[in-house]
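User: Before I run my own analysis I want an independent prediction to cross-check against. Here's the chain; please return only the structure tokens and, at the end, one sentence I can use as a sanity check.
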Amino acid sequence: MAPRYFVLSVDKAFAVLESFNGEHPHLSATEVGRISGLNKATARRLLLTLSDLGYIDVLESGRYRLSPKILRLSRQYLDGLDIPGLALPILQELTRNTGEASNVAVADGKDVVYVARVAVPQRILSTNLDVGSRLPLHATSLGKVLLFGMTSAERRLRLGPPPWPGFTSRTRITCEMLEQDFRAIARSGVSVADRELDEGLCSMAAPIQDHTGRIVAAINLSAHHLTMRAQKLSQTHRNALLKAAQTISRSLGWPPLSKEEGNGKVSS
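Assistant: Structure tokens:
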């Protein structure tokens, strides 16, 4: 039995909207009624009402389809998502499972800015970091992932002409050096920074994508070189990091639902 506050007409309206999918983009009132479980007359009235509101287009053939206005609802939801809030419980689990500090950052000018962080208790790195900390894009695993998602023109605009500042002998200070890392990211899905910012620090990052597939943030694991070498970090924790990145991306709408998922079937 539905709760007393339940508005049946709203339930029916959404049943009509959910009748449309990739396999059935154009439907008649009869077909909508059959899919939604409504009679034809009710389905037609709801279709025409939704058309008046701008969410349904009426075709010349007399059939119906969803209008572009329906995208406003999902866009408003996605625009309101809080990446740090979504990321924090995932970072906590990632650090708990790996024993390494985890972070999420976004690009701002020439820097990455940390927006969420879970440190390892009683672990002191030579680079002290917190939410709001800024580090150079070209010298960090987070930054290289974010640069990977940009066009060449945007990279030039952000970084300026090379050579860029070198912090250790391993810092990527030229376009050619970064391009090698971008090819590695394309192959493995992660970026590794081995003592490029600090002689004691190594890290591994993966991209976070929004509903369009654009890289909007990056997530990483950072460790002290003496306790976890970069190669071991990648070999041991790459899958866990990629899973965390995919979980956050899924919350942001990427990848889009498959046809089976859209019909309530989860693909394996």
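Sanity check: The radius of gyration is 24 Å.
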